Amino acid sequence: MLTAQQALQRLREGNRRFMADDPSPDTNLNHARRAKTAREQKPFAIILGCSDSRVPAEIVFDQGLGDLFVIRVAGNIVAPSQIGSVEFAAARFGTRLVVVLGHSQCGAIMATLEEMQRPTENQSRHLHSIVDRIRPSIAELLHTDLKHDLDTLVDHAVRANVRVSMNHLRHGSDILEQLIRDEGLLVVGAEYSLDTGEVEFFDVE
Cα–Cα distance between 104 and 21 in angstroms, integer? Predict the structure, then answer.
């Protein structure tokens, strides 16, 4: 199994191939790959990303079947089921890298900002549960000068939300804390640009 740093490098290289429109032949679907992964999987990275249709992790990192353990939810929020999914992959497969992947112009972030500034009536309680998870991570931004510049506000909110999700994973699970402390598990943040296709990693400890 790859170390966290080796896995991070592999993701960086894959994203560069994606940006250059030069995919690796190893990521192509074929019978042999399907047969091999049907028996077992050895994902080298765990990706907690947004459900946005424009940010499929396997494609933007140019990876194939069995390479990534991907958890997708609107706004890349962290709830108990997401923590459990990360615990499962990290403990079961020995995967040592977790990436919380946000993206530019995130609809969940913008919906949360809109709701905070102009609350709506009769909002679905299920949608409200997503807003409620994002709200604490970006509330302080509305008390700064950023509130007068929506584009910049959204940019900062995306990063702030990713960092809160990272913090939940780093400190919201005894299993993950132990793996971080003793087994080299690394939780990092990243942001995908819808305009350029580039993934920028940050808070890489």
Answer: 20
Tokens of 158: 């995306």
Q: By three-state DSSP, how is residue 95 classified?
A: coil
For 117-128, write each residue's pLDDT tens digit.
888 777 788 888
CA–CA distances in Å: residue 9 to residues 26, 57, 103: 17, 15, 20
Find all residues with CB under 8 Å of 62, minimum gap 6, and list them. 14, 15, 17, 18, 23, 24, 27
Residue 28 has pLDDT above 70, yes or no: no
- Does position 157 have pLDDT exceeding 90, yes or no? yes
Q: How many domains does the chain have?
A: 1
Range of the domain at 8: 4-202
Question: Which pLDDT score is estimated for 1?
Answer: 84
Residue 38 three-state SS: helix
* Residue 155 DSSP symbol: H
- What does the pLDDT look like over 71-130, one tens digit per residue? 999 999 999 999 999 999 999 999 999 999 999 999 999 999 988 888 877 778 888 899
Mapping DSSP to helix (H, G, I), strand (E, B) and coil, where does residue 202 land?
A: strand
DSSP SS3 for 195? coil
- Positive or negative CA dihedral for 60, 168, 133, 111? negative
User: Distance between CA 1 and CA 42 in Å, rounded?
Assistant: 8
- Indicate which CATH number applies to the domain containing 131: 3.40.1050.10
